[in-house]
What we know:
Layout: H1 2-25, E1 29-35, E2 40-42, E3 50-54, E4 57-63, E5 66-68, E6 79-82, E7 87-90, E8 99-105, E9 111-120, E10 127-130, E11 138-146, E12 152-157, E13 160-166, E14 174-182, E15 189-197, E16 202-210
Parallel strand pairs: 1-9
Antiparallel strand pairs: 2-7, 3-4, 3-8, 4-5, 6-7, 8-9, 10-11, 11-14, 12-13, 12-15, 15-16
Amino acid sequence: MRACFLHHRLSLLFLFLPEIFSSVGGSSVQEVIGAVGESVTFTTSVPVSGTISYKGGTVGQVLNKQSETDQTEKFMDRLHWVSQSGFFTLSDLRTDDSGLYTVVSTKEPKGRQDYQLEVYERVSAPQVKNTTYNSSEFCSLLCSVRNIRGLNLDLYEDDVLLNHTSSSSASDTTLNLHLEIKKTDNHNLQLCGCITDSKEQKRSTSHTTAL
Length: 211
């Protein structure tokens, strides 16, 4: 009976060990969003020694508070280590900087964190044009903006959403949105707004037209 009890206890221990090691060694991925030309900070502190890697390859390291962050041409003069905080920062962002980064602190306080960086193009201000023909009974507006990945384009009239479109890719250079409003006899002035936004930025343009 004792041997059987020990066998079951050891079996349970071996079953739990993988879960224990998994919870200690694993880390959830933190999303980081930036725009082209700006900078981001990876907020896992490496105060003494550690590394930062990009897609599995080491691109910067700190050893006894001495940093080396120009290990690859891609991040030359753009990857920095801040001694006061222990944070790595990446400046002058480019779209091809997107990807998985891992920061590891190998001395106390030890830690590891994965970051998924997404870098978006800057959002430009939309342009609103009146494309109405004189003989038409409708007022036609065209809202257009330089297209980038993940862009939303909304057209409003007096804060009421009238039309919407979005971009899943940047294959088209321009994203357009049309609106037709029936003309009125009293020629009221209508304020139409066009708003573009991505995860990182939002820009808007207003256009007043007589109907």
